[in-house]
Each structure stands twice: as structure tokens, then as C-alpha cells.
Amino acid sequence: MPELPEVETVRRGLSPVMEGARIVRADIRRDGLRWPFPDRMADRLTGARVLRLARRSKYLLADLDTGETLITHLGMSGRMLISGHALGKFHHDHPAPEKHDHVVLDMENGARVTFNDPRRFGAMDLCDTAGLDAHKLIRVLGPEPLGNAFDEPYLMDALKRRNSPIKTALLDQGIIAGLGNIYVCEVLFRAGIHPTRKAARLSSTRAAGLVPIIRDVLGEAIESGGSSLNDYRQADGELGYFQHNFRVYGREGQPCVTQGCTGKIRRITQSGRSTFYCAQCQR
DNA sequence: GTTCTTACCTGAGGGC
DNA sequence: TGCCCTCAGGTAAGAA
């Protein structure tokens, strides 16, 4: 599931083949994914040079020399595949497009970038780079958890006014941008906070304590993705998914990893999503 | 205004 | 082997 760390890993993997390179061909293989693709997307991409590949929350942002930015969201199952580039060298050998390959970008350097998304929850849009912050998907986002605007006073204040469970509040992209179901579970476990606890009822000390934990969990995941990036990409050209060692996520019924704890990991449903936690460690 | 539920979508995995 | 059912989850829109 692409959350912030996975998207950042994808960005780092795409950067050497896309940044500074011109798109010589854009093959748009369907009308859209979650939403229709923008008008004349192929025309607007063809010939454009990628100036910079950035990330905001879970969105990949490719600034083009046409004054537009290509916004990409990987949704639930989106992947970026690179062909024609291995061991730092470019070639022009590409596999035939497969099912669910929706957008294929050929770069002038010979690399091919393919957006594959079986569940089609992903999205692509184009907007003026100058107006990016006002884009409907971007303007509703809260601060970046790894950025300077996200700090203890901010989070304490944001949580204080939320009556929803802390799990739900941390999933709210307007409070923090980029956390998804998996990392919220991991963060709450490390913080020792029960997922059903009301956000507003958290002590300011515990709310503030979430800030460094969120940074640590995301930072470690990015590092783990980055360190496995090269080997992984050389294997099959795929970016974005790595087997992290989760402490609670997906571990229902298994023993808690905390030393001395005899509890087992439980699974409950909150807002239609699975929450994993240890009832002994998290209160 | 806030919070909760549902729809979107396909593949994987379990049960029979 | 194959069919049916459930589940996974980011986001938006509608409901409560």
C-alpha cells in the first residue's frame, strides 16, 4: 500500500531516469483511472521536459518546462515500472505493455516509465505549476510530517479539537499529510496509545510525543525502501513495494513484540479499516 | 460542523 | 479444479 514512504521511494527511483529528461512519447491507454485524465494529456506531456520530481504527501509531482505539473497518485495498487534503464545505463529494450499498464511515458534517454494500477484507485492530473497549491487535491492537505511546519504545538492543537478516535484523526490528511492505515497502526503501537482513545482526550504530553514517533516510523520506512531500492529495481524494474517489518500491522493473533508483554495482537474495525494493536501495551 | 458509511475496483485467499 | 464470498484500502460524496 503506497503511503508516504513508498511514494518517496518511488520518487527517488524515478528521479535518475526522469529529471532533466524530455518525454518523447506519452501513451495514454485508457480514459482515466479514479477520475478521467485531463484533456489532451498525451499532447500536453509529449515534448515536455521534466524539470523536477517532487512529492507532496502521497502525490508525485513532476514539474514540466511547459509550466505545468503532472500530479500522480498511486491509489491502492499503483506501481511505477522502469524499463530501458539498468545498472545506471540506458537502453531501448522494453517489454510489451501488460494488462493494467495505463500510462506509458518514453523518455528521450531511452527509459520507459509505466504506470500500472490493477485496482484503478490511482489518479493523474495536470495543472499550472504556479497554481499547484490551490489544486483541489493539494489544498486540503495538512503539513508534511517530515517538514518544519509539523511540530508538537501544531499537533497538540489539531488533536485537541477532534472528538474522533486518535486512529481516525491521524488518518485525516488534513491534519497530517501522508499517513495511511499501516503506519498509523505502527505509530500508535510505538506510542503506547490505544487506537480508540479520543484524540481530544489525549494528554498534551502524549500528543506531543507522537511527533518524533511519526518522524521515526516514516524515516525508517523511507530508509528501508531506499536501501533496498537498487537491488529491487535491478531485479524486475518495479518500484514501490517492500516488505517492511511491521510490529502490529497484519499480525492479528500473534504475540506482541514488546519484551515481557504476554499480550496478543488484536484486530478491530474503525471507520471501515482494520486496526491492529496490543491491548496490554496500548492504553 | 463533525463524524460515519458507502462506492469505487480487482486480485488474493479461504471455504466448500 | 472451480466457483463464490470476503477482504484489502485512499479518497470523495452522501448520510447521519
Automatic annotation (TrEMBL):
- On whether Glycosyltransferase is a keyword of this UniProt record, the answer is no
Q: Where does DNA bind?
A: H100, R119, R162
Instruction: Write down the chemical reaction(s) this protein catalyses.
Output: Hydrolysis of DNA containing ring-opened 7-methylguanine residues, releasing 2,6-diamino-4-hydroxy-5-(N-methyl)formamidopyrimidine; 2'-deoxyribonucleotide-(2'-deoxyribose 5'-phosphate)-2'-deoxyribonucleotide-DNA = a 3'-end 2'-deoxyribonucleotide-(2,3-dehydro-2,3-deoxyribose 5'-phosphate)-DNA + a 5'-end 5'-phospho-2'-deoxyribonucleoside-DNA + H(+)
Q: Where is the active site?
A: P2, E3, K58, R273
Domain Formamidopyrimidine-DNA glycosylase catalytic, by residue range, is 2-122
Record keyword DNA damage present = yes
Q: Cofactors per UniProt? A: Zn(2+)
A Pfam family: H2TH
Q: What is its EC number?
A: 3.2.2.23, 4.2.99.18
Tell me how the cofactor is bound.
Answer: Binds 1 zinc ion per subunit.
Superkingdom per UniProt: Bacteria
Q: Which UniProt keywords apply?
A: DNA damage, DNA repair, DNA-binding, Glycosidase, Hydrolase, Lyase, Metal-binding, Multifunctional enzyme, Zinc, Zinc-finger
For the FPG-type domain, which residue ranges apply?
Answer: 247-283
Partners and quaternary state?
A: Monomer.
Instruction: Please describe what this protein does.
Output: Involved in base excision repair of DNA damaged by oxidation or by mutagenic agents. Acts as DNA glycosylase that recognizes and removes damaged bases. Has a preference for oxidized purines, such as 7,8-dihydro-8-oxoguanine (8-oxoG). Has AP (apurinic/apyrimidinic) lyase activity and introduces nicks in the DNA strand. Cleaves the DNA backbone by beta-delta elimination to generate a single-strand break at the site of the removed base with both 3'- and 5'-phosphates.
* Similarity comment: Belongs to the FPG family.
Its recorded name reads: Formamidopyrimidine-DNA glycosylase
* Source species: Aliiroseovarius zhejiangensis
